[in-house]
Design a protein that fits this description.
Layout lengths: L6 E5 L2 E6 L2 E7 L5 E7 L3 H4 L9 H21 L12 H10 L3 H29 L9 H23 L3 H21 L6 H5 L9 H18 L5 H10 L1 H17 L3 H17 L5 H14 L2 H8 L1
Antiparallel strand pairs: 1-2, 2-3, 3-4
Helix pairs in contact: 2-10, 4-5, 4-9, 5-8, 6-12, 8-10, 8-11
């Protein structure tokens, strides 16, 4: 495997692929044609090089991925909105009057803020509160910290299992698989076509799912070492330390994406196993969409010639 530098994400009926500051979003429209948007995204680490330092860059790369992810999701969703003419409500009219053309950006920002707060509450604070249950039986800080980590992972698995029952999410997970298969196809020296992509692996070490699992695993170690007994301070510590944990996790993910060392592969295993829930086998027409997205931002022929 040779590192290519490309990455992406699944969107509604499509794929976003990013290479450097260039990205493209390919979407299978209701009429079965493929629409493609190409653009550039200047990351925070590019605008302010100091943010690109090790352990800092992971935090701001995560913010970049949220912003770009919301933008590309909004683009893909635009092809599936209800075409029926309907008047905006009075509340919508007020928002339009206040924010004008910036309304979409405001809504996107509010949505991201609420999503981040909800995620921290559900996946960081709630497991901490639930872990206090075993204090009645075992008053050992280290055991409680491990139990908290187990609860955190269990909640995440339950969440993924529940949303995967939705048909739209199932298809998004299939496009997620197509994204991984395309990258694996290229990075293993194969020509980028539907046949080669279909037989490539749908698991990849540089996946967001792996990042989340690594965050959860490293958080166990952090919360075992940093001892806080007061419950409200423990809750604060979970929030304050999250950027630090994310920064460390990002550095490991960078190493994992470039290394086949046995220890790195071993630590990557839980994330790859979890991708069994968030990636599904795509159909050939989904792979076609992924290939279109790749070819708009990445010269895979030159890459294969140089590396293989």
């Amino acid at each position: 495997m040779k590192y290519s530098g490309i990455g992406g994400q699944a969107v509604i009926e499509g794929i976003m692929m990013k290479n450097g500051d260039r990205y493209s979003t390919a979407v299978r429209k209701p009429d079965k044609t493929i629409a493609v948007m190409e653009d550039k995204y200047e990351s925070l680490t590019t605008r302010m090089p100091i943010l690109g330092l090790p352990f800092l860059r992971g935090i701001f790369s995560f913010i970049d991925s949220l912003v770009l992810g919301m933008k590309t999701l909004s683009y893909s969703a635009s092809f599936f909105e209800d075409d029926e003419d309907s008047k905006p409500s009075k509340f919508e009219e007020k928002l339009i009057a206040i924010f004008g053309d910036k309304l979409d950006k405001v809504i996107m920002g509010v949505t991201m803020f609420i999503s981040v707060i909800a995620s921290i509450a559900i996946f960081m604070v709630l497991p901490m509160l639930l872990s206090n249950i075993i204090k009645l039986k075992i008053d050992n800080y280290y055991v409680i910290a491990i139990f908290e980590g187990i609860i955190r992972i269990a909640i995440f698995i339950f969440y993924i299992k529940m949303i995967s029952r939705m048909e739209d999410i199932k298809r998004t997970f299939m496009y997620h698989g197509a994204e991984h298969k395309c990258i694996n196809c290229i990075e293993h020296g194969l020509e980028l076509n539907v046949e080669n992509v279909m037989k490539s692996s749908k698991e990849h070490k540089r996946c967001g799912t792996s990042f989340i699992i690594i965050v959860m695993m490293i958080s166990i170690l952090f919360f075992m070492v940093i001892r806080v007994d007061t419950i409200w301070l423990r809750a604060v510590s979970r929030i304050v330390l999250l950027p630090v944990i994310a920064g460390v996790s990002y550095e490991f993910l960078r190493i994992a994406g470039r290394s086949d060392f046995w220890l790195v592969n071993l630590i990557s295993k839980p994330g790859l196993w979890m991708q069994g829930l968030t990636t599904k086998e795509p159909t050939p027409d989904m792979v076609e969409v992924a290939i279109v997205a790749v070819e708009r931002v990445f010269d895979w022929r030159a890459y294969l010639e140089e590396n293989f």
